[in-house]
Specification:
Radius of gyration: 21 Å
Catalytic activity: UDP-alpha-D-glucuronate + H(+) = UDP-alpha-D-xylose + CO2; UDP-alpha-D-glucuronate + H(+) = UDP-alpha-D-apiose + CO2
Mean pLDDT: 97
Shape: globular
Number of helices: 14
Family: Belongs to the NAD(P)-dependent epimerase/dehydratase family.
Order of helices and strands: EHEHEHEHHHEEHEEHEEEHHEEHEHEHH
GO molecular function, one term: UDP-D-apiose synthase activity
Strand content: 15-25%
Keywords: Cell wall biogenesis/degradation, Cytoplasm, Lyase, NAD
Cofactor: NAD(+)
Bound molecules: nicotinamide-adenine-dinucleotide, uridine-5'-diphosphate-xylopyranose
């Protein structure tokens, strides 16, 4: 760790980071990276700590003095301001961010993504502290191309679908499509952070993750989360594969996504943390434009990869179609296509993703199989016995 320098060759000083939502998927990987590869200190804030338990158990770690866990619900805890004051940088990851919640729990979604984030922005601004705020690629909503006629040749033109931080509009559906409650709340908090920068000099960076995936994402229903819960697509499909049941394709699985390996994405976040002069005042897309698939193609690839890593043949009918109303309920809608433009992050931080979709699925599904296969088998045999 000695002699670490930033992108401009200046020595990197040790800092203290208040990480809110540190116990989640992204937070757990970021904590791991900071503790194992940097000298920085982490004040980890979350209501859960299961995903960072391995980093907190003193017997196993050499960095025990560099991480503190604070079990705090940021909705209503006066200790939050004190922690932000103690830190040089605050990273806010806390949010309700699973699509199954957006249309079924729109109030919780809006409160979590906007109202609960307000004090964090305010405390950073008032105390002159730097903030890295996690937004989402969902703020782009649908592409302009989605509104062109099906047979329009312009649909092939990147100008109509590549998503650019400084020029693309945010296109959401009508209010009754409550899917957009999340995107809209995230958009408003982005505008607030940006305005605090413009009017009060807040030093900020906004991150727009494009489908980061990998180990520890969400939960497997009935194993380490509620049996009726609906996680994001990686965990939904992993659950189906573990239980040897067909993967459910919502509305034909035609939506397109670009998936990035969590470990590649975390490299980008570390560059933002350690290069404030290059990251402050910017909004960054963080994704892998080379890993685009339809959800149907994702299902097919995950089926093949899971077969390889588990040694089990795939089932006869690997996928089934299901309507969004049946799967998510009333008010669901979808982003059609999400390709991040990489100009700004390339220019400011010289960062590029590395891992192909096949490779990231292979390591992630190996993890899923090792972590869950036995527990799923036991849970299923119990259900059959009953
Ligand atoms: N994973 C992705 O691909 C992705 C994509 C776009 C945006 N994001 C954004 O990145 C951030 C982190 O996402 P993630 O995938 O790690 O999600 P996650 O659900 O795994 O992590 C969020 C964490 O925040 C905590 N949290 C929520 N409300 C809290 C509160 N009131 N007080 C304290 N802790 C609270 C949760 O307990 C959880 O551990 C979110 O803001 C999300 O919107 C993620
Ligand atoms: O079992 C499933 C689950 C999901 N899907 C589909 O797979 C696609 C991806 O679904 P995900 O659950 O990963 O969620 P989305 O990509 O729509 O949104 C996510 O993207 C960015 C983040 O802000 C959030 O983490 C989340 O909103 C959607 O089209 C969804 O309808 C299925 O076809 N079957």
């Amino acid at each position: 760790m000695a002699g670490r320098v930033d992108l401009d060759g200046n020595p990197i000083k040790q800092i203290t980071i208040c990480m809110i939502g540190a116990g989640g998927f992204i937070g757990s990987h970021l904590c791991e990276k900071l503790l194992s590869e940097t000298p920085h200190k982490v004040l980890a804030v979350d209501v859960y700590s299961d995903k960072i338990k391995h980093l907190l158990e003193p017997a196993t770690v050499t960095w025990a003095d560099r991480i503190q866990f604070h079990r705090i619900n940021i909705k209503n805890d006066s200790r939050l301001e004190g922690l932000i004051k103690m830190a040089d940088l605050t990273i806010n990851l806390a949010a309700i961010c699973t699509p199954a919640d957006y249309n079924t729990r729109p109030l919780d979604t809006i409160y979590s993504n906007f109202i609960d984030a307000l004090p964090v922005v305010k405390y950073c601004s008032e105390n002159g502290k730097r903030l890295i705020h996690f937004s989402t690629c969902e703020v782009y909503g649908k592409t302009i191309g989605a509104f062109l006629p099906e047979d329009s040749p312009l649909r092939q033109d990147p100008a109509y679908y590549v998503l650019k931080e400084d020029t693309s509009p945010c296109i959401f559906g009508p209010i009754e499509k409550q899917r957009w409650s999340y995107a809209c709340a995230k958009q408003l908090i982005e505008r607030l952070v940006y305005a605090e920068g413009a009017e009060n000099g807040l030093e900020f960076t906004i991150v727009r993750p494009f489908n980061w995936i990998g180990p520890r994402m969400d939960f497997i229903p009935g194993i380490d989360g509620p049996s009726e819960g609906v996680p994001r697509v990686l965990a939904c499909f992993s659950n189906n594969l573990l239980r040897r049941e067909p993967l459910k394709l919502v509305d034909g699985g035609e939506s397109q996504r670009t998936f990035i390996y969590i470990k590649d994405a975390i490299e980008a976040v570390l560059l933002m943390i350690e290069n404030p002069a290059r990251a402050n005042g910017h909004i960054f897309n963080v994704g892998n434009p080379n890993n685009e698939v339809t959800v149907r193609q994702l299902a097919e690839m995950m089926t093949k990869v899971y077969s390889k890593v588990s040694g089990e043949s795939s089932i006869e009918t690997p996928t089934i179609d299901v309507s969004s109303k049946e799967f998510y309920g009333e008010g669901y809608d979808d982003s059609d296509k999400r390709i991040p433009d990489m100009t700004i992050i390339n220019r400011q931080l010289g960062w590029n993703p590395k891992t192909s979709l096949w490779d990231l699925l292979e390591s992630t599904l190996t993890y899923q199989h090792r972590t869950y296969a036995e527990a799923v088998k036991q849970a299923m045999s119990k259900t059959t016995a009953n």
